[in-house]
Amino acid sequence: MSLQVKIINQSTNPLPHYATSGSSGMDIRANLESPITLQPLERTLVPTGLFIELLEGFEAQIRPRSGLAIKQGITCLNTPGTIDADYRGEIKVILINLSKEEQLIQHGDRIAQMVIQKVEQVSWHEVEALSETERNAGGFGHTGKI
Ligand SMILES: O=c1ccn([C@H]2C[C@H](O)[C@@H](COP(=O)(O)OP(=O)(O)OP(=O)(O)O)O2)c(=O)[nH]1
Ligand SMILES: [Mg+2]
What we know:
By secondary structure, the protein is mainly beta. The protein has one helix and eleven strands; from the N terminus they run ββββββαβββββ. Helices cover 5% and strands 34% of the residues. It has a four-stranded antiparallel β-sheet, with no helix packed on it. A three-stranded antiparallel β-sheet has the order 4-9-7. A two-stranded antiparallel sheet has the order 1-5. The longest helix is centred in the middle third of the chain and has 7 residues, at 66-72. It starts with 5 loop residues before the first strand and ends in a 28-residue tail after the last strand. The structure holds deoxyuridine-5'-triphosphate and magnesium ion (MG). Deoxyuridine-5'-triphosphate binds next to β8 and β9. This enzyme is involved in nucleotide metabolism: it produces dUMP, the immediate precursor of thymidine nucleotides and it decreases the intracellular concentration of dUTP so that uracil cannot be incorporated into DNA.
């Protein structure tokens, strides 16, 4: 499936792209005038310079990169971040430093990845009871017990 998604890039960074033919996400980069230093447990909103127009029925998810998480302890605080189809503002990424050392984020660093997905909206049908199932209300480690 090939979809045309409109994008404005107000950055010197290249447009996001799929690194391999099987990639789910495209890495997105920080668009910074000066580097950001993140202290342990500090969070910050990082601009990307990207503005997108999704088709109705789609969303973009902003997800962490595993390499950044394991090497630097940096992740997205609100993962997965939701970019609504009707959002026209700049895509920004909420990063948090979960390591014990300060971490540097520089212009052009690949700070997260963006996955475009289909989404459905529902309408509620309010009822008195829900259907019975084998699980019913069991959860939170309910299965496998003797
Ligand atoms: O990581 C993110 C998450 C959100 N957004 C933008 C796009 C999204 O469409 C909008 C609103 O996001 P969300 O619904 O998560 O935030 P909210 O706190 O519910 O704000 P709002 O009341 O504006 O929906 O903010 C980003 O740029 N990056
Ligand atoms: Mg919201």
